[in-house]
Amino acid sequence: MQIIKDFVNGLWNENPIFRMVIGICSALAVTTAANNGIAMGLALTFVLTCSSILVSLLRNVIPSKVRIPCYIIVVATFTTVVDLFMKAYFPALYEVLGIFIPLIVVNCIVLARAEAFASKVGVARATADALGMGLGYTWAITLISMIRELLGAGTLFGYQVMGDGFTPWISAILPPGAFIVMGILVGLINMINRKTVKDTDCH
Amino acid sequence: MMANSILTSILSMGGLGLVLGGGLALASKKLAVETDPRADAIVEALPGANCGACGYPGCSGLAKSITENKAPVNACPVGGASVAEKIAKIMGVTDIGSTDDKKIARVLCQGGKSEAKVKSEYHGIKTCKAASMVNSGPKSCSFACIGFGDCVKVCPVDAITLEDNGLPVIDEGKCTGCGLCVKECPKMVLALTSNKNEVHVRCRATMKGKDTRAVCNIGCIACKLCEKVCPFDAIHVKNNVAAIDYEKCRNCMLCVEKCPTKSITSAFAARKKAVIVEEKCIGCTICAKNCPVNAITGELKKVHVVNQDLCIGCGICQEKCRKDAIEMVRNGHEKLDECSACAASK
Amino acid sequence: MLKTFKGGIHPPYNKNLTNFKPIEKAILPKKVIIPMGMHIGAPCEPLVKVGDTVKKGQKIGEAKGFVSVPAHASISGKVTAVEPRPWPGGGLMMSVVIESDGKDELFEGVKPSKSLSDLSPDEIKNLIREAGITGLGGAGFPTQVKLSPPPEKSVDTIIVNAAECEPYITADHRLLLERPDDVVLGLEAIMKATGVKRSFIGIENNKLDAVESIQKVVQGKEGIEVVILATKYPQGGEKQLIKAVTGREVPSGGLPMDVGVIVNNTGTCAAIANVLKTGLPLIERITTVTGSGIREPKNLLIRIGTPLIDIIEQCGGFKGRPGKVLMGGPMMGLAQSQLEAPAIKGTSGLLVLEKADVRLYEPSPCIRCARCVDVCPINLLPTTLAKFAEKNMWVEAESYHAMDCIECGCCSFVCPAHIPLTQHIRIAKSHIIALRKKK
Amino acid sequence: MAKELFFIIVGSVFVNNFVLSRFLGQCPFLGVSGKTETAVGMGMATTFVLTMTAVAAYFLQNYVLAPFGLEPFLQIVSFILVIASLVQLVEMVVLKISPALYNAFGIFLPLITTNCIVMGAALLIPMNNYNLIKSIALGLGAGIGFTLALALMSGIREDLEFADVPEALRGPAIVFITAGLLSMIFMGFTGLVPLG
Amino acid sequence: MDEYRLITTSSPHLHSGESISRIMFSVAIALLLPTFAGIYFFGFRALSLVIITSLAAVLTEAIFQKLRNKPITIADGSALVTGMLLALNLPPGLPYWMAVVGAVVAISLGKQIYGGLGANPFNPALIGRVFLMITFTTPMTTWINPIDGMTGATPLSLMKMEGISTDYTKLLLGNSGGSLGETSALLIIIGGLYLIYKGYVDWTIPASYLGSVALFVAILGQDPVFHLLSGGLMLGAFFMATDMVTTPLSKFGKVIFGIGAGVFTVLIRVYGGYPEGVSFSILLMNAFTPLINRFTVPKIYGEVKAR
Amino acid sequence: MNQYARMIIVLMIISIASGAVLALSYEITNPTIQEQARQKLEQSVLTVIPGATKMEEIQKEDMIVYIGLDDEGNKKGISFEATGSGFNGPIEIMVGYNPIEGNLLAIEILSMSETPGLGAKIKEEAFTSQFKGKSSEEEFAVKEDVQAISGATISSTAVANAIKTSLDKIVKIYPVGGDL
Q1: Which chain B residues touch E7 with a CB distance below 8 Å?
Q2: Which of B75, C22, D18, E91 has the least CB density, counted as fewest CB within 10 Å?
Q3: Which of D73, D190, D196 shows the shortest C-beta gap to F22?
Q4: Has residue F83 been placed in a domain?
Q5: What is the mean pLDDT of chain E?
């Protein structure tokens, strides 16, 4: 039960992108196409899950004074692994995601979950949490990238969706578009959340 | 080749780890910064409203001061006894001072829209402070509540609401006695009093009786009836307005009954009544002798009876009874302010 | 180039309602209410009790402390009450109510003083204090205190504030026309009391007849110069006047004496002259009763303590439905709601606006047009201060010099969004003062 | 050379601002842009660390990683460790030499480790084959660009304190949209200097 | 006594009678001049564009306020001014739906999300224009020659790309390619002077803006008169850089604003990728405005020098 | 155990483990990565030299030149990389060239970061195909010799200039009409 709770938590209540608003550099940078969004999301989920598991396993071994360097090494290791494997087997994706794959190492989500959650609970809960957070991140940036791709190129996952008469809104896949789409989504999610809170409110 | 690269990387990483670990170990030894873990614990224990009622900059500011022994453990007026206790535990202090005497803010004016005369039509910034600075406020009584709800805005726990007649109402359950509203009110119609006190003079007008009557039909007119009726000498008219001596007041509510303008109030329906526990009463007559309103009757060595209609709930009999045979019982519900829907769902 | 200051506004002056009307003596009031605190500083202690009979000019309130002046009976009669009463400042003020006996008998102690040349500076100051003279411009600062700067401040200039920049008000204007000798005599007394050899009389150029009138008296008198100023509000603000006349700037938080200047109002000078000539303390003053809501606008010489409603009735009563009654001018005057309140020493005018003439605005959002910044004679950022005030950011407001605001009202006057900027700043000031007291 | 350095700096401050166009350093950009003082403090501290990191990354890359062929798989780990220890070192040094300076921006230092602008700049150096001077220029430019974006945003946000922003948009949402508009404005600089 | 109740307010009790709507409608009237020029040169399309963007702007404002349950304040004229300004900044041949998108973006993203009038950090009309510029670049840079109705280049891009100058009278009167309302420098100046005369525009900004552009262009060895008269500079300097909401409060701050806008305009015009930099520079200086305000707090009367 | 010793040891063990894992994964992926890069290069070389099925890499002076060969080993043309500075960053172009006739065979944009929808159109066939058959003597002046993409003159110019610059170098190495 707790495990399911931990898992679902990252999907909505504490969605890293829309609710906690952390680790958004990559969410803004690579979301020009839906494919990139998914790929980035899965890469991060992998690193996050592996690190959380390891940190959770090692939580009683690592002295608190050196815990941050230890976490960093752990995270960096998995990041490099993803980096290498992506380079080897998905070179096209790797090229698009570019510098943001290595930058997973400084993604606040990973370190924050390691420090705030995984280092305090057992492996099962840590895994559930990491998966939840990772997938929460993934769906969030996939949504962003879908909106941007649709508006900016008229396609979704590379397939033409809009009709021929469609004039692409180029700004959507430019940097300003990333910020604005993100801002509007965060605002919308706030609105939805407030409404649900109001409904459950006492008065 | 492969073994070679693994070896170099292991060596270099190992070296890095050694240097880092060593460096950190050294650093933590040499440059240890003493952060007081107690401060963090105290912050956890505090309500976290950052209301500033304690006089320190937010909860963490208070926590720091407590650890430095600059503030007492019960310095948080909002948290009350339970928080003080927790903090005391963290600090290892046992004497936490008296905190059961919780204070509650009271509104000392009943001059709402329908009761108090309005002398002018005020326009401008809609806060009490602003209105009070223009011709001393729009109400004829210069002591009256202005009713723009500055207190409502300042309350950190949403315990104050503005009623339809323009007067603030305090939810005593929510009020933490932080006193922010008291400080905010430009007309000083709010005051902190102990939650043990149930009777309040809700008028501060120091004008002569006729002048008060001219501007407000619920103000104290200094008729002194309350003074006369009080069996405990606990209420006096000073400066044309009645004032209760809370040291002496026993919440008997006689003055409330007597007050012709209803400017003295209490939760009259919840007045306490003395009830004699028959099994314990030995008929010593002490209670009957001490009752200020002669509400207890009974023969010597026989169980006494309290005339509920006469009893004023002053509790003297309970104090005097040596056999613990008198209980003070409330008439109505103690509180009715809980949301019925919530109560139902519980 | 006329002398003036930076900023300021040109409101409609509407002085022609009364500027041609000679000063008229008001009829003896049936009752006067003398508040014990008609000045800045500690209120007086009443010296009389209910039932006492008092005579005109008799001291009925003793000054408490240095920054304070005594209060005097302005009519003869019987004390009927000593209690808090409504007063123009708002709320209640301890007051002595005197019921007239109709005789208007002079108190025996009231006698003309020695001539000015025979008086020593200290004697002059004492006379001024005992006569209960305060600045008659409105703020009510005890004049004697103003004239006694601490020894480390060297004062070299006296300025008579005859600018009268408040719209509608013509009391000083008439005084300059009708009694210029008194104004100059009072000024000479001030110069003697302070030992200052140089003085200026500053008059706005919309009162050139007053300039002419006073010029005649001043002619040949050494050290007194009439300065013609541009007509602009708030030219009569103490700091603005000093800047215009001397070019000096009173330091922030400081007093005129910090730059060697003492400013006195025209009316104050005349009141001093009156004490010298008759020995009568400050029990009457000239008040301009004007506005669209008054049937017969007048410049009235009234007894201090006359209920406002009596004054209004003497001017033919209200015309139409009254909307606003202001004590003072429209820019800085105080809105009144209880007309039984008395006129006090600072009542330079009584402005009644008809209900139809009172325009009330709902504020809209600030569009940062910076007009308030342009007109602020102190060079403040009123819009920023108002925003701080709205968010209860008192510390920030203080650091943006809220305390230097002179509350002249220029910013509110020009604001196209109708934001009550002056009121916001006033609230900020009161909060800042409270915070300072705490420390 | 001087021209190239100028281009690198102008490029990373205006044309391809590290925050508004490269999307680096978003967390602190959102987090500490509320007040101008803190924003500028954070910006300066980051600029300092960035410049130091650029030097360190250059040497690490060219004298340790590349010669021993460790670059492809130890780059990330070694860079992040170097940054982390550098930040720690700077913190200690600043504390030692100037407590005033420490009070001014010392509190921001721990936050910088996870600021991806630092890591990002470090990774860009080997990617672009920059020499030492160019690396420093990049670090400096990135830092100045970061500070500029932060300062502008903080100014706007301080003003927004007084504005009636729709409730749902308060907080990060309005900051994102404002950043989007800023980023849009910064696009006016495109083509100002040749990049790359 | 009871038949009337006096009104009490805090002083002052007088008001100049000025109001926001009066300011806005004066600006709208001044804007009519360049609008007429646009209609004269570009015909019905120009007229319909102005009407459509203005309508879209006003409607967006009303809908947004309705959704937020706030009082609808379209009567204050600010949305109308935004709509007109936006139209004047568009190429006359722009598809109508794009102009509508621009107006919606201008009012919603540029203004209403910040809480409406007075709170927007950037000039809404320019936000709308720049958004269109980067979103639909090609249509936004397709210009029509006023005389033959053929597509052509603006004087600025002719200058930038091919080094061809356009003669002054053409620029002054407006029969050259360009946005709807930016071609006739003369009418814009007249409209601007009207607003300065009315006191709704502070002369310091146009003066420092135009002055610095002329100066820097001259330093870089190009023709200052050509640069002053061409492109959106005049329109920007008189109508957009002077937008009260988004410019500094103090005089000194306004001068800094003007000079900054001038520097960036010249930088972008001479070195940048876009032929025109007025919109970008004004918006950039808008972003700097809070900081400028912070550091140009006027010295108050009697402020003592640091002791 | 001494806590400091423990700190050092734990950190060291983790570092070493990390090093081992990394080295291992590098060893696993490296050949694939190399292969991928080679394939990609070859792919683009073969695209710009029609008819070629194999490539050969040679270093001539400071330029790396790829020679395209058909199945029989006949040299079909050479190709080289050109780099230009575009609107938003560098543009890398693979250029196919026939030194014998002195004209371009084809070009392919390898990487660029131009504005999507605008400058990015340099990648499209419509733009790249116009270089086919251009003589090395032409000036490649945009709007005259080369049709620019509307609204993206800078990107178009960058490509043209980059090709011209590298081509001029190549012409010195392989004079027109000379041997391959």
Answers
A1: 120-123
A2: C22
A3: D73
A4: yes
A5: 89
- Cβ of residue D165 closer than 8 Å to a chain C Cβ: no
Asked if E161 is an interface residue toward chain D (Cβ–Cβ < 8 A), one would say no
SS3 of A91, please?
Answer: helix
- Tell me what the pLDDT averaged over chain B comes to: 81
Q: Is residue C97, in this structure, part of any structural domain at all?
A: no
Record: contact B25-F4, CB cut-off 8 A:
yes
- In this complex, which chains have at least 3 CB pairs below 8 Å with chain A? B, D, E, F
Chain D residues within 8 A of B23 when measuring between CB atoms: 85
* pLDDT at A68 > cutoff 80: no
Tokens of A2: 């707790």
User: Residue B335: how many CB atoms within 10 A of its CB?
Assistant: 11
ipTM: 0.87
Q: What is the pLDDT along chain B (346 residues), one digit of tens a residue?
A: 556 777 777 777 777 777 777 776 776 666 555 556 777 777 777 766 555 556 565 666 677 777 777 777 777 766 666 777 777 777 766 554 444 567 889 999 998 888 888 988 999 999 999 999 998 899 999 899 999 999 999 988 889 999 988 899 998 888 888 888 998 999 999 999 888 888 999 999 988 888 899 899 899 999 999 999 998 899 999 888 999 998 888 888 889 988 999 999 888 777 888 888 888 888 888 888 888 888 888 888 888 888 888 888 888 888 888 888 888 887 654 443 434 444 444 3
Question: What is the per-residue pLDDT across F52-70, written as a single tens digit (0 to 9) for each?
Answer: 888 888 887 778 888 888 8
User: Which residue segments constitute the domains of chain B, with CATH numbers given?
Assistant: 37-91 (1.10.15.40), 103-267 (3.30.70.20), 271-345 (3.30.70.20)
* Structural domain boundaries in chain E: 20-294
Q: How far apart are the first and last CA of chain A?
A: 30
Report the CATH architecture of E20-294: Orthogonal Bundle (1.10)
Number of domains in chain A: 1
- Tokens 């809960």 correspond to A125
How far is residue C149 from each of residues B343, C145, C152, C236, D145, measured CA to CA in Å? 70, 7, 8, 22, 57
Touch test F–C: 3 Cβ pairs or more under 8 Å: no
Q: Closest Cα to residue B146, out of B183, B109, B99?
A: B109
Helical packing angle, D36-59 and D116-128, nearest 10°: 40
- Strand pairing report for C77-86 and C53-54: antiparallel
| pTM for the full predicted model | 0.89
Domain presence at residue F23: no
Residues 6+ apart with CB under 8 A from E149: none
For chain C, the domain total comes to 2
Q: Strands E6-8 and B120-122, how do they pair?
A: parallel
Distance CA C328, CA C333 (A): 4
Q: Does E108 contact chain D (CB < 8 Å)?
A: no
User: Any contact of A with C, at least 3 CB pairs below 8 A?
Assistant: no
Nearest to C409 among E11, E19, E119 (CB): E11
* Chain A contact for B33 (CB, 8 A cutoff): no
Range of the domain at A51: 2-202
F162 within 8 A of F82, measured Cβ to Cβ: yes
Interface touch B135/C360, C-beta < 8 Å: no
Minimal CA separation from F56 to chain B, in Å: 27
Which of C367, C418, C425 should we substitute to test contact with E (largest number of E Cβ atoms within 10 Å)? C367
Distance between CA atoms of C27 and C300, rounded to whole angstroms? 10
Instruction: Determine, for residues D73 and F115 on separate chains, whether the beta-carbon distance falls below 8 Å.
Output: no
Instruction: Tell me, yes or no, whether C119 and C255 share the same domain.
Output: yes
Coil/strand/helix, residue C82: strand
**Chain E positions touching chain F (beta carbons under 8 Å):** 137-138, 141, 161, 273
Q: Where are the domains of chain D?
A: 24-185
The answer to whether the CB atoms of C335 and B137 lie below 8 A apart is: no
Tell me if C202 sits within 8 A of C172, measured CB to CB: no
